[in-house]
Amino acid sequence: MAPSEDPDYDPGFDTSQPTIARVYDALLGGKDNFAADREGAALYLKYVPDAGRCAIDNRAALVRGVHYLVRAAGIDQFLDIGSGLPTQKNTHQAAQEINPAAKVAYVDNDPIVLAHGRALLATNNSTIVVTADLREPQSILDNEEIKNHLDFSRPIALMVVGIHMHFHDDEKPDEWVRTIVDALAPGSYLFITDFVDTGEPLQKAIERAGLESLGNGWIRTPERITQHFLGMPLVAPGLDFLARWFPEEPDADVPAAEDLEAYQRILMAGLAKKP
Ligand code: SAM
Fold it and tell me: Which InterPro entries does the UniProt record give (predicted)?
C-alpha cells in the first residue's frame, strides 16, 4: 500500500485539506496525494473532464520553454518558483539533457515538495529544492542556499509556471514577481503560464472547480496576463494557448485557436526577456 493510501500514515503535515501541489499531482496521475487531494482533483474532473490533459499540456509547454531557454537562449540557470511535486520530466531534467551543467533552484511553499524533491535530487549537485513563499519574494532573494547555487550577476530564467491563477489580483502577484525580476541580470527571462478568460464556458468551469476545491484558481483576460510580464518584450510567438506555443519553432504550422478543443483554450504561455 502506498503511504498516501494508508489511513494511519503520518507524513508530518496536514493531509486533511487539499493543497495545490497535491491536487495537481493527482491530476497528473501521480502518487504523492491524499484522499482530500483526490477529492479536489475529482471536482476539477467533474467540471472539466479534460483537466488532466490541461495539466499534462502545461508540463509539456514547460519542457518546450526550458528547451528553448537552454538551446536557443543559452540559459544555464533556472529559478523555478511553484515548481510542484517531481513528475515525469522536470525543469532540471529538461535543462540538463541539453546542458548537463545547467543549474536549477526549485522553490515551493508546500513542504511535501521539499521532502520528495530532496529524495529525487540526492545525487544531483546541480539542483536544489528550497521551501519558500512567492508572497515574500525578498526571502527568496535572501535565501543562502539559492544565493550560493545561482549567480545573480548572470542571466537566470525565472519560471512562474502554473501558479498565478492561485493568487487573486488583489494580492498583486505581479509585484512579488517584479521584486525578483528587478534582482535579475539583463538577458534573464520570465516564463509564465496562466488560466485564461476569453469568455468561454469551460474556462469559467475550471475557475469554479478551483474555487470549490482549493478556494483559488482564477481566470484572467489575455490583456491582464500580458501585464504579468511587467512590460518586458515577449519572444515569439508571444502569449498564446499552450497548443500554439512553440518558441523553438514560432513559425511552425499550428492549429487556429478556434480549431483547438475547448480544454486546449484554458491555459496560455508566454516568455519575456529582460532587456
Ligand atoms: N510549476 C509546476 C508546473 O507548472 O507544472 C507546478 C504548478 S502547480 C499547479 C502550482 C505550484 O505552486 C504548487 O506546487 C504549489 O504548492 C505552488 N505554490 C502555490 N502558492 C505558492 C507560493 N505562495 N509560493 C511558492 N509556491 C507556491
Answer: SAM-dependent_MTases_sf (IPR029063), SAM_dep_MeTrfase_SAV2177_type (IPR006764)
Residue having the nearest C-alpha atom to atom 19 of ligand 1 = 82
Quote the CA–CA distance of 3 and 33 in Å, as a whole number. 9
CATH number at residue 38: 3.40.50.150
More confident residue, 87 or 38: 38
Name the pLDDT band for 88 (thresholds 50, 70, 90): confident
Give the distance (Å) from ligand 1 centre to CA of residue 230. Answer: 20
Quote the number of domains for the chain.
1
Residue 36's contacts (CB-CB under 8 Å, 6 or more residues apart) are 15, 16, 17, 18
The binding-site residues of ligand 1, defined as CB within 6 angstroms of any ligand atom, are 20-21, 24, 58-59, 62, 81-84, 107-110, 113, 133-135, 161-163, 166
Mutate to test the pocket of ligand 1, among 14, 20, 57, 107 (most ligand atoms within 8 A of CB): 20
Residue 6: inside a domain, yes or no?
no
Q: How many helices (H) and strands (E) does the chain have?
A: 10, 7
ipTM: 0.99
Domain that holds residue 241: 11-273
For the stretch 249-258, pLDDT in tens is 998 999 999 9
